[in-house]
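Any chance you could type out some protein's one-letter sequence along with its backbone structure tokens so I can compare the two?
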Amino acid sequence: MKRKLRMGMIGGGRNAFIGAVHRIAANIDGLIELTCGALSSNEENAKLSGKDLFLADDRIYTSYADMITKESQLPADVRMDFVSIVTPNHLHFEPAMMALAHGFHVVIDKPLSFDYEQAVALQKKVAETGLLLAVTHTYSGYPMLKQAKQMIAEGAFGKIRKIYIEYPQGWLSNFVESSGSKQAAWRTDPKRSGIAGCMGDIGTHAAHLAEYVSGLHITHLCADLQTFVEGRHLDDDGNVLLKFNNGATGVLIASQVAAGEENAIRLRVYGEKGGVDWCQVDSNTLLVKWLDKPTEIYRTGSGYVGSFAAHNTRVPAGHPEGYLEAFANIYRNFSLTLNAKRNGETPTKEMLDFPTIAEGVRGMAFIDSVVASAKSTEKWTEFKV
């Protein structure tokens, strides 16, 4: 029987930025409905937030443990199908493990966990249960990055040689964590964010994009991390040299003190015959550059794009699709895959195109490797997963 998937949410209550984004993304394609939530660790806020979202009183929970336990005891045609975890990093692992142990699939905001050891434990639990776990590496949802990935995979540019990925922001150029900014406060707190600041928050996005689009894996890196703002406890800027498993090299730049920048993500990948150039500020455009002929301009929604870009596009060319739609593509593909499995069908390769536990573990390994490299006197640090 086909129906909407029932989603529970942990975190994401009133004044929480990313929770609202997750809900919008989950709702865009009409495949998911929010049926329950433990939306805040504060009891009053949890209840008010649930009422804001028109949840039934008996499906508004004041702790994730209470929600997972009680939902698991409901009839199969009532209880949630999966849980979306949108809390700060230090609150990812325990609810994810508990959800999996009670038979619930999981969507979790990146990075996957507080540390690498937790990530490995989650990976083992996913393998043990056979359940789905998606990680919201949002930017891989853009249709033109999927077009780039497909062209590279099909060998359009020959062997890949060079990858440049940059993600500059400027919002942490001042000591805003002391001025009441909740987003800044937890992201710069080692007790809640983990061992990395900028590199954990946006560097993991950059590393994932470099690997996702190129189809390659980072094998070694050489990192330089800085903390420019006085009083801050974690890195707010970094530069990383990369080596990939086919011999390609790369450069990753991530900064949250690039004053004046917003979310200026740009990816360039070059092979023997040409390459691709994409930036989020014009996310519906992919520049395809050739060694021996003029640059081509690919556009989202056009009839000439490949199956992966087409599958993740909702409107005709000329109608911009952006961040929310890219985010929604992760939920859409996760949902289509889950529904296919529930109905005894085989998901298509396009449905299966979303970040999973494997990418989440590599993200945590990236954080560990970058921090270790920044502290080391050796030129290169091996990337170990």
